[in-house]
Amino acid sequence: PFVIYPATLIFRLCCGPGNPSPAESKHPMQNPAPTVLITGANRGMGLEFARQYAEAGWSVHATARNPETADALNTLADSYAQCHVHALDVSSTDSVAALAAALGNQPLDILLSNASHMTHLRDQSFDTANPDLFAQSFEVNAIGPFRLAQALIDNVRASVEKKMMFMGSTAGSTGSILPPVKLFAYCPAKAALHSIVRGLHLNLAPEGITVGLLEPGVVDTQGFASVAEGEPAPYGMDAVVELLREGVLEMATPASAVTALRAIIETMTPQSGGQLTRFDGAIIPW
Predict the structure, then answer these.
(1) Pair 149, 164: CB distance under 8 Å
(2) Exposed, middle or buried: residue 53 (CB in 10 Å: 0-12, 13-18, 19+)?
(3) Cβ atoms within 10 Å, residue 92
(4) Which tens digit of pLDDT belongs to each residue from 82-91?
(5) Residue 180: is its pLDDT beyond 60?
């Protein structure tokens, strides 16, 4: 059986970029532009979220732990005056406080918590996992997003859209985990995030705040499809690269995945939030 991997390696996604989403027509180019804050925007889906929202005319606040080395993100910011890069480590209370201070009273229509942590598979097996790894995984994948939500809730409250979105994972669904289990730290951390998001939804929906939990499907955020023969696969996922080469597994590009998720974000309401929602709108039990 296929091993359960992170959210970016679970289900096939084949949604093309298509036409501009309703969000783009709903918010024409005007002042003030709608605003989105995206964590983990230095690469992968976070970078693509920043690109698409900037292209749609949104004001974008994109974060990375080390902005000085986030070349692609800095290039994007150079291309769009409304794209701003910030340093952020969601595992640091001081870093989150510094970001909140930099934003001040800036309304955030969408707070998109995308940053995550996952180490090599061999470091997360039953025989090799160091208990300290669990603390790091929980800090970034679960506690960090909650810390950020606490710090920026008033910014979200002050906006028009009032949306908080979190990147969940089928890996955090206990009913979806199949043997052999190789992500002993990542899976429970994502499950904890799901529970936290459910609590945020129950607390904030009465205020008209939409709290969403997103599952992007199978997305090639690590460049598996471009790994050459003989080169090591990211995170040691050689089996995934082999499945791609054999045509057994197909992956979407970050562009198509983000296009699909933006449509989900656009249509989600306070009433429909709080559930693990796949890119195609399906609700995944966890």
Answers:
(1) yes
(2) buried
(3) 15
(4) 999 999 999 9
(5) no
Residue 75 has which token pair? Answer: 């290039």
First to last CA, the chain: 20
What token pair was written down for 105?
């009273």
Number of Cα atoms under 13 Å in the Cβ half of residue 135 = 3
pLDDT tens figures, 25-63? 444 444 579 999 999 999 999 999 999 999 999 999 999
Q: Left if phi > 0, otherwise alpha if psi is -120 to 50, otherwise beta: which for 66? A: beta
The answer to whether the beta carbons of residues 63 and 38 sit under 8 Å apart is yes
Q: What pTM was computed for the model?
A: 0.77
Per-residue pLDDT band at 187 (split at 50, 70, 90)? confident
* Contact between residue 86 and residue 99 where contact means Cβ atoms under 8 Å apart: yes
Phi, psi for residue 73 in degrees, rounded to 5? -70, -40
Residue 221 has pLDDT above 70, yes or no: no
Total Cβ atoms within 10 A of residue 69: 10
Residue 167 bridge partners (DSSP): 214
Q: What burial class does residue 67 get, using C-beta atoms within 10 Å of its C-beta: 0-12 exposed, 13-18 middle, 19+ buried?
A: middle
Cβ-proximal residues to 202 (8 Å cutoff; 6+ apart), any chain: 274
Q: What is the residue-wise DSSP string for 49-101?
A: HHHHHHHTT-EEEEEES-GGG-HHHHHHHHH-TTEEEEE--TT-HHHHHHHHH
Interval 239-272: pLDDT, tens? 665 655 555 456 667 888 999 999 999 999 999 9
- Percent of residues in the chain assigned helix, strand, coil, to nearest 5: 45, 15, 40
